[in-house]
Amino acid sequence: MAISTAPAAPPTRPAPTKADAEPRRRRAGRLQGSRWIAVAFAAPLVIYLLAFYAYPLIRSIDLSVHDYTVRAFVQGNAEFVGLDNYVTVLTSPLFGQALANTAVFVVASLVFQYAIGLALAVFFRNSFRLSGVLRALFLVPWLLPLIVSGSTWAWMLNSDNGVVNSVLQAFGLGQINWLTSPDTSMLAVIIANIWLGIPFNLVILYSGLQNIPAEVYEAASLDGAGPWRQFWSVTFPLLRPVSAITLLLGLVYTLKVVDIIWIMTKGGPADSTTTLAIWSYREAFGTGQPDLSPAAAVGNILIVIALIFGFVYLRTQRRQESS
Amino acid sequence: MTARRPWWKTVLGIVFIALMLFPVYWMVNVSFTKTQDLRLDPPHLFPFDATLDGYTEVLRQQLPNLGTSLLIGLGCVVLTVVIAAPAGYAISLLNLRGGRTLNFVLLVAQMIPGVVMAMGFYAIYVRLGLLNSIGGLILADSTIAVPFGVLLFTAFMSGLPRELLQAARVDGAGAWRTFVSVVLPLSRNSALTVALFAFLWAWSDFVFASTLARNSDLKPVTLGIYAYIGNNTTQWNAIMATAVVASIPAAILLIVAQRYVAAGVTAGAVKD
């Protein structure tokens, strides 16, 4: 399943394959005769999307503009408060910190996942003995349940008995309180998240590399370009579309990460790892007292942020296609 | 083709994979460590003096949870394929009107954070009495895989030769017959990929489980592990043993279906 930049011939231009195009259009017309049948096949999905995406989403918006206490939740008579929850959230001292934490978490994770993933993809580009097996093994971290990876990292980074500190001590470095000091907790969850993201980056970038024709490299080396030069003048520019989608998917995924941070630090200590997603999760489900209305407000702000990046991406992609 | 195999690359590759998989190794190592040795400094790098205590603990406490997770995973697989395969067929081969819009909606759907979905589901489930039920979790967990499934089916089915559909039509098959006896059999590989991911994601889900099934008698295994951590337990060997057991489906699927896993990861990047 390659990343298809499907060369769908623009219908207006008289393509050289005009003879082919004619019957294809007629064929399409015949299949289209059954438009309602197509709708029938798609109907379960549409109903599903309405029931399990649109409706929960509407409920979450509804939560954010009412004041849902636990009692109001059961009785269903929550007071309408308009945008009060959003105002509360946006003016909360935690908002700035959560936003900054989210930015640090996302940017640091993306940069390192991508750089390491790309370096490994280039390393694996030419096959060598065992390369297939080794590449498959790189997928392991990605397939493990996040709670498994999270608790393993938490134990490895444990201050007193963690293997990481005992290795550091062997090199003469002092003990680091990875998860219990606000100075290093963010670093700790970022390290774990980078580890989790490398396989995904590796696989997508690797398949992107496979789609770069070998002749380009031959031409480059005939022109006397060394490996370093080849990477910067051939590989990297030709990989740009694939890089863009890798980073976008990584961004969308990283923005909404809850599991790994929650399992390792619960957003602490002293809110040092509280991202927007963690904040929302903690307000709603992390304490004994569910506070769903502000939590929904934070969550909806997060959606808006994700959508903005999504649309920026689609825009640039469309512009690239039309040029 | 060069005759010379760059052996140093193999060596380097093994070094890289050793670094990458160290946490996995460490999980297995700790799962065999005796409770009194957990606090050793420096820790044993190999399970010299292995114990199965952690695993007996798992068997004693986690078997029902593993069963619950299995049930939820399989339920999600069925639901996802049943919804996604016909939709992919409609978008890719039946020239569905608004197919592009639908693809766009699916793309956006994947951007919604799980926390927000969880709150929506929570609010709905309170009313419907679906909290703490396996069915409720199957429905919620399936939302992770359905958009991905539709996009993957659409991408694969658009690659099928249209001549085959025409041949079926000439033979008098309607859209449904064509779907069941031509398109579905040909899409077996993509169905396997979708099923594999639907299962793994449902099996690994933590956000929905921890919000919609917190007080359930039948917990998925992810909550089983979480309960261990939450209790401030020192039984890290038991936690790691559960973690190892919870990773077994991933390990099996990786060995059996390695090809499909790679295909699926890349398909996540297929644009409309």
TrEMBL record, chain B:
Transmembrane spans: 7-28, 70-92, 104-125, 137-157, 178-203, 236-257
Localization of this protein: Cell membrane
GO CC annotation terms, alphabetical: plasma membrane
Pfam families: BPD_transp_1
InterPro entries named in the record: BP-dep_ABC_trans_perm, MetI-like, MetI-like_sf
Membrane disposition: Multi-pass membrane protein
Keyword Repeat (UniProt): no
GO biological process: transmembrane transport
Signal peptide limits: none
Statement: the UniProt record of this protein carries the keyword Membrane: yes
Domain of life: Bacteria
Keywords: Cell membrane, Membrane, Transmembrane, Transmembrane helix, Transport
Similarity-based family: Belongs to the binding-protein-dependent transport system permease family.
PANTHER family: INNER MEMBRANE ABC TRANSPORTER PERMEASE PROTEIN YCJP (PTHR32243:SF18), MALTOSE TRANSPORT SYSTEM PERMEASE-RELATED (PTHR32243)
Protein name: ABC transporter permease
Classification lineage: Bacteria, Bacillati, Actinomycetota, Actinomycetes, Micrococcales
